[in-house]
Specification:
The protein is an alpha+beta fold. About 20% of the residues lie in helices and about 30% in strands. The radius of gyration is 22 Å and the shape is globular. Bound molecules: 2-acetamido-2-deoxy-beta-D-glucopyranose and fe (ii) ion.
Length: about 425
């Protein structure tokens, strides 16, 4: 914001006035939003001695008891890895597939995906990739509750992203759920590589389950007509395993939580492939086995920030699919896109409804576009908490009926629990029984 000298003097005068009438305490105590931070580019590290050195390692859960290990090498090398439950002792080995893509003048590295398992729940595994001696490790999620799910959208790659990642890393989470907008590469493909390196320390240790945002589309008229080229190649999610025909929408179970990743930038109209898949997926849910249902989208269906109002992915997708989610008694819908935090009460068709899902916007991971600071006034009654700050959320599903949701704000470098609320599962409300 530009302040000219006169306005600056004016505000100094009003500040002095405020002091003199004893209002300053209010000014000092209120939260001061931190300024934007530097964009970062993560280079391949110095110990990368050869062009077959693994980089950008990340893992995702495949089916109930398998893990997909994904990594990139500059040059071709077999997609093989070794793993086991003790450091340095790799009892098992597995092989997978390798792909690559072109985008304008850019040629990607060799993208390897190897599925391993069956794995034991809540267990540490140690692994090494290709011919590299470097040891990585991960922990599988528990098969029963409690489970700790971290949620952060619109990450990007700035110093704020780094602090969000640090807080998530310190939270002892079991799995990350990302409601779209990952790298903010925006056609500059080397930024996808940088993002892969930035998140590797976390994403190689816990499953990262993602869905797409508008920044993943990367379609250029005439020059690159195919959407989602980099995203689909680099972040292959377990869609086949859930009967989906597209990497843009899929579902899985973690502990006893059913998680549905929807595609805000895939066709969502009634009778579209995504709509039919969602209908079938919700019909298959057994609430005895998975008492909780979470849904992730990118563009929020409920939003009282002035940013991203009236977009088709919000309005038309909500019109098409809100009934399906309501009838299935979905518990929570997480969205990104708006770079701020907002939590709604349980809602359906714009009204509070105890059988509808709680909607949460959590597009505040820390990207270079900065925060969406303006809100519609007055605050709608269904909006329970809203704030434009960077941060992340933790959903701790404790048992079949109770979950603790906490939003942590990045206050300078500290994660501060700012919004915290106990949620009860829809399936436990007698009045919402199906
Ligand atoms: C579920 O967790 C909540 C919160 O800790 C607790 O009050 C409740 O008694 C638990 N329910 C069962 C069945 O254990
Ligand atoms: Fe977005």
């Amino acid at each position: 914001m530009l302040i000219d000298g006169r306005a600056g003097r004016l505000s100094l005068i009003s500040l002095l006035l405020a002091v003199s009438i004893g209002l300053l305490s209010d000014v000092v105590c209120s939260y001061v939003r931190p300024p934007p931070r530097e964009i970062i580019f993560v280079k391949q590290s110095g110990d990368a001695d050869s062009d077959t050195t693994p980089q950008q390692v990340h893992i995702s859960q495949v089916g109930q008891d398998k893990m997909r290990i994904s990594w990139i090498t500059e040059s071709p090398t077999p997609a093989k890895l070794e793993y086991g439950t003790s450091p340095g002792a790799y009892r098992f080995s597995a092989t997978g597939t390798t792909s690559s893509y072109r985008y304008l003048m850019y040629n990607s590295g060799e993208i390897h995906d190897v599925d391993i398992g069956p794995l034991n729940p809540n267990t540490h595994y140690y692994y090494r990739l290709g011919d590299s001696a470097k040891q990585y490790n991960f922990k599988t999620p528990p098969s029963r509750l409690p489970v700790k799910l971290a949620v952060a959208g619109d990450l990007g790659q700035t110093e704020w992203t780094r602090s969000t990642l640090q807080h998530i890393g310190d939270s002892n989470y079991d799995m990350l759920l990302l409601p779209g907008d990952l790298s903010y590469a925006d056609d500059v493909q080397s930024l996808w590589d940088s993002f892969g390196r930035l998140v590797e320390p976390l994403a190689s240790q816990r499953p990262w389950m993602v869905t797409q945002g508008n920044h993943e589309v990367e379609k250029i008229p005439l020059f690159h007509r195919k959407p989602f080229t980099a995203y689909n190649a680099r972040w292959r999610m377990p869609f086949e395993e859930s009967g989906s025909d597209s990497n843009l929408y899929y579902s899985f179970d973690v502990a006893t939580v059913h998680v549905i990743m929807l595609g805000s930038y895939a066709d969502f109209a009634p009778h579209s492939a995504q709509y039919k898949w969602l209908e079938g997926d919700l019909n298959k849910v057994d609430r005895e086995k998975t008492p909780w249902i979470l849904v992730l989208i990118h563009a929020p269906w409920y939003n009282s920030n002035t940013a991203h109002q009236g977009e088709i992915q919000s309005i038309a997708m909500k019109a098409a699919m809100e009934d399906l989610l309501y009838r299935a008694r979905v518990d929570l819908v997480f969205a990104g896109h708006v770079h701020a935090y907002e939590r709604f009460t349980r809602v359906y068709k714009d009204k509070a409804d105890s059988c509808g899902p709680v909607h949460v916007t959590i597009g505040d991971g820390g990207n270079r576009e900065g925060l969406a600071t303006r809100y519609i006034d007055p605050k709608p009654e269904i909006s329970m908490f809203r704030e434009a700050s960077f941060g992340h959320g933790i959903l701790e599903v404790v048992n079949a009926t109770h979950a603790l949701w906490t939003w942590h704000r990045n206050d300078d470098n500290e994660p501060v629990a700012t919004d915290s609320v106990w949620l009860t599962s829809s399936s436990s409300f007698p009045a919402c029984k199906l």
